[in-house]
Specification:
Layout lengths: L4 E6 L7 H15 L3 E4 L2 H4 L6 H7 L3 H12 L2 E5 L9 H10 L17 E7 L7 H13 L3 E9 L15 H22 L1
Parallel strand pairs: 1-2, 1-3, 3-4, 4-5
Length: 193
């Protein structure tokens, strides 16, 4: 049986993002659990704000095509999402919106998302660790056909949670992230069987 393929990304474009650090921790744990993991940075995709007039005039931007192709090529997703005003970031919602668009009339609806499985994480300087934003992300993904694992991990006081190498200082939180990543790998393997 082939290894599960997981696309890992953070919903932040900030270079020092806590969620980029967290998704890298989760990606490494998923690799340890036996998955092939690709980490993508939304900043590298250079996505314009979704605009149907732009899409009608110029088609799907190259970054959106790359992201959509990556989603299609992978079995599941590890997503670490910051919380902005109790919801998801504009960057993450924008990436999802672009990847949800059909590139041709005969393309199946939501082909990049339907039937995929995702595990959610968040990191925030606040006491809740970004949990409120994950509620919205879970709803968005569920509505576009993604199976979202019931477990999730939130890292509060994220500005104190990582060492200089980007690793989690708290071993208990590190174990929670590893368990979530392992769960995703195991479920993807079962779904492929």
């Amino acid at each position: 049986m082939s290894k599960p393929k997981i696309l890992a990304f953070a919903g932040s474009t900030r270079s020092g993002s806590f969620n980029k650090k967290l998704v890298n921790v989760a990606a490494e744990a998923a690799r340890t659990a036996g998955a092939t993991v690709t980490v993508v940075d939304l900043r590298d995709l250079a996505l314009p704000i979704f605009d149907q007039d732009l899409e009608d005039a110029k088609g799907m931007p190259e970054g959106a095509k790359r992201f959509k192709t990556l989603l299609r090529e992978h079995d599941g997703m590890l997503i670490s999402s910051p919380e902005y005003n109790s919801s998801v970031t504009g960057a993450l919602k924008n990436a999802i919106d672009w990847a949800s668009r059909a590139e041709s009339k005969d393309e199946p609806s939501l082909v990049a998302f339907h039937g995929k499985t995702a595990a959610l994480l968040s990191a925030s300087p606040g006491a809740l660790g970004g949990l409120r934003g994950l509620v919205h992300l879970r709803s968005i993904l569920g509505n576009i056909g993604v199976i979202v694992l019931p477990d999730q991990v939130a890292i509060p006081t994220a500005h104190e949670a990582f060492d200089d190498a980007g690793k989690l200082k708290d071993e208990r939180k590190n174990k929670q992230v590893a368990a979530l990543a392992r769960s995703l790998v195991e479920i993807l393997a079962k779904l492929a069987a």
